[in-house]
Amino acid sequence: MEKDIKKINLGKNINLTLIPATKFKSNLVSIYIQRILDREETTKNALIPAIITSGCEKYPSLREISNKLDDLYGSSMVGDVSKRGERQVITFKIISTNERYLDEKIFTNVIEFFNEVLNNNLVIDGGFNNEYLDIEKTNLKDRIQAKINDKSRYALERTFEEMCKGERFSISEHGYEEDLDKINAKGLYEHYKNIIRTSPIDIVVEGDFDEKEVIDIISKNFTFERGEIIQIPREEYKKDIKEVKVVEDKMDITQGKLVMGYRTNIDFKDEDKYYPLIVGCNVLGGGPHSKMFINIREKESLCYYIYSSAEKYKGILFVSSGIEVQNYEKTVELVKKQLESIKAGEISQDEIENSKSALINSMKSLSDSIGGMSDFYFAQGMSNTNSTIEKIIDNVVKVKSEDIVKAFEKIELDTVYFLRN
Fold first, then answer.
1. CA-to-CA separations, 303 to 230, 246, 262, 293, 414, in angstroms, rounded
2. pLDDT tens-digit series, residues 5-15
3. Going from the N-terminus, what domains does the chain have, and what CATH number goes with each?
4. Contact (Cβ atoms closer than 8 angstroms) between residue 307 and residue 384
5. Dihedral Cα 49, 53, 56, 59, nearest 10 deg
6. What number is the average pLDDT over the span 318-337?
7. pTM, whole model, 2 decimals?
8. Nearest to 230 by CA among 33, 30, 32, 15
9. pLDDT digits (tens, 9 = 90+) for 236-265
10. What integer pLDDT is reported at residue 2 of this predicted model?
11. Residues 6+ apart with CB under 8 A from 76
């Protein structure tokens, strides 16, 4: 199937990716808009998806937008922001029923409507609707405050704040409560127009469609106003550690949250080291077969959960665990010990095979639901790697124990963060 995926440059730094997927009864159109993760604009960018999808010139209220989506055979539309490395990505998606299951062609109408929402905004006195903006500011404020309710996620964000202080990766993609009052309707509208003019834009269509027809409809009906496009620099992924940071926060909680952040100093484009790193990370803490799960959770009963994961773009490996406060020092030492055992080549064939199997199954599952392949191919284009799922699986299969040892050589502990009562 992957050989059928087409990438087309529509000009003005707008790229179109077509992903045929005949097993779905829906078609998904995703718009990805890339920005540099910037403390000065992250909160404004976080407001944009909700304000844009609240109303436009032709459909000026949520009710009218909802009615139009119902007319389009129950189509649905969402907008959100995410962090990918040191980029903030603004995403809009619309999903509609495949025309093959209908008595009429609706794809053109879907794209015309999507364009209306994105490019013909509801503007009052030179800015967005103030009433809508106030609602979305409140919603975003609630979302920012609610982060603290998910203690493991909160601990992870705090780790990256401390670990990457002075680096863009420490910036929250959802923005900051203290910035909300500074944002006004006119300024936010001007900011959005500038984003559309200057940002790299990717359009990804996933589903069962006629290729030529889709290219024609997309080309004719999206009317993004374009100017000089910003250059987004590559993240710094190397860092010398002079001293390990130890950070402790206190909160009224029953279970402590431990996060240990490591610098891998590995470029994701270096396939000889990146894929062994990913397999090794899975050996360390990728599931019930992993060293930390067996030796720290099962044998020592020190934690409620423990896992490791790698952040591709910044070259960060982190370990996250829920523990009793009195088990903090012992858990830290045992995590270090498991990582050192990998560096020493103490890796069984079962550990490698189970880790490879878990990673391969995860890659194959991307095509199980609509949207997985869209996000995957956007990420490949964004990082200029342009790998296929088949190629990634092939790279994983080739990894040997000695490759993992080599990849883990330069991994250094940067930050130990503990959220305790």
1. 46, 20, 20, 9, 22
2. 999 999 899 99
3. 2-221 (3.30.830.10), 245-420 (3.30.830.10)
4. no
5. 180
6. 98
7. 0.96
8. 33
9. 999 999 999 999 999 999 999 999 999 999
10. 61
11. 69, 94, 95
